[in-house]
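User: Quick sanity check before I run a bigger batch. Here is a single chain. Can you write out its predicted 3D structure?
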Amino acid sequence: AAQQVTGLAITRFVAVDLAATSALVEAVGGVQVCVERPVLDSVLGPVVTTAGTGPLNGARAASLVRAADVRGEPAGGTALVQRQLRVLAAALARALSPSALLHPGRVNGLLPALRTTVVSTGTGVADLLALSSGLGDVRAVPTEPQANSRGNQEMREADATALFTAVRT
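Assistant: Done. Predicted structure follows.
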């Protein structure tokens, strides 16, 4: 289905288990993540109380990637996906940084967390590092401003076609 929508041949993939976010963030010693507004979730409570860049430990990072009912955010989950990408990019960048990879003790501590968090085919450390450096800047596929009658975001066909054409070329 993704190949049909995008027109891209998908030959490799990387999957991330968001349930393992806490362990990965703890293994890298915490991360710095920027949020545009406080993240006050109706189920989880206050996750991040002020806007801007701040440190997150494993528990707070796990809450940030799960906060789905945040006061002031539009329906559709775009803001949630953006937060998830930022946390994962920060954690992978720290895990795959030269300072982490050049210290055997740190690598041994990171390997179990990376194994449970990231599943991929045909990718190596260099690929994951390239992915982590680009994740924080990923923008969602352009969608209509309002969810459809089932509560799902629908792609803006013309904008999505332009985006996927640019990616293919």
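The radius of gyration is 17 Å.

User: Great, the batch can go ahead then.
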